[in-house]
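Extended Data, panel c. Modelled sequence:
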Amino acid sequence: MDKETLLKKLGLKTMFRISDEEMPLLIQEYDIFMNHVQALESIDTTGVEPMTFPYDIETTFLREDEPTHMISREEALKNAKDVTHHQIRVPKVVG
């Protein structure tokens, strides 16, 4: 299958209509992309463990969920427009 036929077929599958004017540039971009893929495939990954992310992610931002600074209920509700039974009343969203 030639590149133009392949790209038109992929375009239909992904709901893109590719015009004849766009095709030469798309083929050029496809060739560039495939060159990158070939370069990646040529890398020897023998003995390399698969990773979820391409780099180690430190999870220092995670912490135990412990309260640190608590405010009183009255202070939390003091700027609310409408409070009913110690709860903020908001307009009905779903009918």
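The beta strands are 83-84, 87-88. This feature is highlighted in the accompanying rendering.
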